[in-house]
Design goal:
It is a single chain. The protein is of the alpha/beta class. The protein has a single domain, classed as 3-Layer(aba) Sandwich (Rossmann fold). The protein is 35% helix and 18% strand. It has 11 helices and 11 strands. The strands form 2 sheets. Strands 6-5-4-7-8-10-9-11 form an 8-stranded mixed β-sheet, with helices on both faces. Strands 1-2-3 form a 3-stranded antiparallel β-sheet, with helices on one face. The C terminus is likely disordered. Bound molecules: S-adenosylmethionine (SAM). The site of S-adenosylmethionine has 19 residues, from helix 2 and strand 5.
Length: 303
């Protein structure tokens, strides 16, 4: 945060775990349900760590490390499965991690070995500080086609479209080894479309039990891989509702061809293309899709 920005605010989520709210972005770092619960259900469990045996090493990239919760949860699970991690982190701002590490509640929610390793990793050369768009090429030089897991946890697309562009997602996709997985909490049609354009195959992350129980076609996020994602009970094919969402105007992806676009420029350009496609009659208005599926109000499926 710069001196002009409002300060990050610490908060506790429903599971008692530490999180942050960014007034500058207007969004929390995690869902209210819980930072630890989210790290486990949306990133660690769909990672499918049982695909590797004891002693094997995984290459993982945490995109938007923030407080380090996703990495800490993965470190605990990897230790339990006796897996080694080669870890890389991308993050703009050191303050979320500093605030988390200074918080007794955050420290006590992790096993001491995981916390110590998190601190070591974030202080080391594999923590790539700065705009993830400018640091990703270095990672591609080192690990193109070799990464097993990409944990993608940027702020939501309307708040941070810079990290959900077709170009940035294509870079993340190029990191993955053939069986690698990109995992994200996000199920926005524009993001799924961007992942498809990057040549990845998609699956929905099953929604945590109790969440959106009224609709079994809601997902808890998206998994993407160069190879079809079948046979994993934590993943399922996109529902008919989700597939149709990809044919609507909401699926117009974010574009950032120079890799330096501002949030407003990326959003404006997307709106321009959405208007153009609607006027040309080449796409279904998102409102029509919503009505067909009985989706009322603004809350619900993002974008
Ligand atoms: C939703 S939070 C990440 C939450 C994190 N995974 C955690 O468990 O705490 C989004 C993060 O993206 C970072 N960020 C925002 N813009 C970025 C950019 N252009 N490059 C890298 N990181 C960025 C923010 O500083 C913030 O820490």
């Amino acid at each position: 945060m710069t001196a002009d920005d409002p300060q990050l605010r610490a908060l506790r989520t429903e599971d008692g775990s530490f999180s942050l709210f960014s007034p500058a972005v207007g969004e929390g770092f995690h869902s209210g349900r819980g930072a630890v619960a989210e790290a486990r259900s949306k990133f660690v469990e769909p990672a499918g760590l049982e695909r590797w045996g004891p002693g094997q090493q995984l290459v993982v990239v945490d995109v938007c490390v923030g407080t380090g919760s996703n990495t800490a949860a993965l470190l605990e699970a990897a230790a339990a499965a006796e897996l080694e991690l080669e870890w890389w982190g991308l993050e703009l701002d050191p303050e979320p991690l500093q605030l988390a590490l200074a918080d007794g509640g955050f420290r006590s929610q992790w096993q001491p070995a995981a916390l110590e390793r998190l601190q070591g990793l974030c202080a080391g050369p594999q923590m790539l500080w700065g705009d993830a768009r400018t640091r990703l090429p270095e990672l591609l030089n080192r690990r193109r086609g070799q990464v097993d897991l990409v944990l993608m946890d940027a702020f939501s697309p309307s708040r941070c479209p810079q990290l959900w562009s077709v170009e940035f997602l294509a870079g993340l996709a190029a990191l993955l080894q053939p069986q690698g997985r990109l995992l994200t909490y996000c199920s926005a049609a524009a993001v799924r479309q961007g992942l498809l354009l990057a040549g990845l195959q998609l699956a929905a992350i099953a929604a945590p039990s109790g969440l959106r129980a009224e609709r079994s076609d809601w997902s808890g996020g998206t998994a993407a891989s160069p190879t079809a994602l079948v046979g994993d009970p934590r993943l399922r094919p996109l529902s008919p509702m989700e597939r149709e969402h990809l044919g609507t105007n909401a699926a117009e992806p974010y574009r950032d061809p120079g890799g330096q676009g501002s949030r407003s420029a990326i959003l404006q350009e997307r709106q321009r293309r959405q208007r153009q496609r609607l006027e040309a009659g080449g796409v279904e208005p998102t409102g029509a899709w919503r009505r067909r599926w009985g989706l009322t109000g603004g809350a619900g499926h993002p974008q």
